[in-house]
Design a protein that fits this description.
Elements lengths: L2 H10 L6 H7 L2 H12 L1 H17 L8 H14 L3 H8 L8 H10 L5 H4 L5 H9 L3 H7 L5 H17 L1 E6 L9 H14 L5 E2 L6 E5 L3 H5 L2 H4 L3 E3 L2 H10 L6 E4 L6 H9 L5 E6 L2 H13 L5 E5 L12 E7 L20 H21 E11 L8 H7 L4 E3 L20 E4 L1 H4 L4 E8 L4
Parallel strand pairs: 5-6, 5-8, 6-7, 8-9
Antiparallel strand pairs: 1-3, 1-4, 2-3, 9-12, 10-12, 11-12
Helix pairs in contact: 1-5, 2-3, 4-5, 15-16
Amino acid sequence: MNIVELIRQWASNSEDLNLNKISTKHSLAYHHYLTEIIRYWNHLNFIAKKTLRSLQKDGMRDILKIEACLYITYRYFWEEAQFSSVIKEISKNEEFSDRNLVHSFYKKLSSFKWDIALQKKATTEKLSIKHAIPTFTINTLLPVMDYKSIKENVTAMDERARKGIFYFRVNNLIKSTVPFSELTAKINADFSKIGVKVRSDENFPLVLQASVRDKSKILKSKYYRKKMIIIQDKASFSSVLLLDPQPNEIVCDLCAAPGIKTSLISQQTSDKAFVVAGDFHHNRTNEMVSLLKSVGVTNVGFVQWDGIQPPLRNKLFDKILLDAPCTGSGTFTANPVLKWKQSGQFLNRHIVLQEKLLKSALSLLKEGGTLVYSTCSLYPEEGEYQIKKILDDQVKFADTPSWLPPSYTIDGSTMKGSGRFLPADHHTIGFFVSKMIKKVRN
């Protein structure tokens, strides 16, 4: 299967095509091109179809398949690829028939001009097409962001995949004769020897960051292979820091898979808290068990459960982390497929699920206990608006550290105890987090 056929397969049935499996079944180049073409799907479609129509006006009898045009368009504008390089891949397609037709399309791309193509479009449509942002995402964010901020945050996620930074942390649960501080210094020194510049985050000393261009080198290192470093975005890291788990506390990670945050809970408590980690999906739960064992976690009880009705008594836990299922609108860097799933139905389905999980978490939490709620979403409906529904009635806001960025402005003010990491401002995924204390009933 070549890249044109993969594009066609995704376009015809995107639900059945797992991008993560493409790099094993096909070349890494195919994985890269398909991922990036999906990332800029409506953008590339607009250019390709405009160019095809102009060829028809010029009297061309045959028209190329749109899948081939998308690939050619991406290579032309993103890589400034020579025609000889493009035609080499296109010719692998079984339906390829006319080199001259491909060349005509390739040459015609040079005449495409955004100012002309978009001159009759409304502002939202212009932003959507030119910067590959779903119109639903734009309309949902407009109450809390202006057009400029929406563009900056979504394009920051897209660009971060190619030239941004990524985060990882040192895992001290793996037994080592080297003290933690020395281990971190040794990791920095060893990466420096292979040309990888690593530095600690200014707010989270455990979090290290490096250029995404060096990610492959880090993933090939002995430290990653031996689970001595764990990939984790610093926004995600923040939810566990806010939870502040302590040794001997009873802690629940309600929607725990794949287990990265659970492993950090264990790391922060030196593997001495009593942790229950559950997830709804059988396969994800099994994968979580395997991952946590591999990184040295020993104090976690694993449960496959429905987090809405877990088989546990009420008021059991001192602290609960609810990293709730969401639309993933803050994760387009790693999950460009999610861009084109964004819709009112998709959002509402997650809002209802989050409400039920919050209710469950509060019933499981001891009075005076701490609940941290988080989502990797840019939408206020999955963050601030969810918290407003339970505020004052059952919980109060907890104090939060100065490093936590403010939430969106809702009803004229930001929300205490809550914050947002934004891709354009903080070079992270889009992430909402809120820390609450369950009220004690007299």
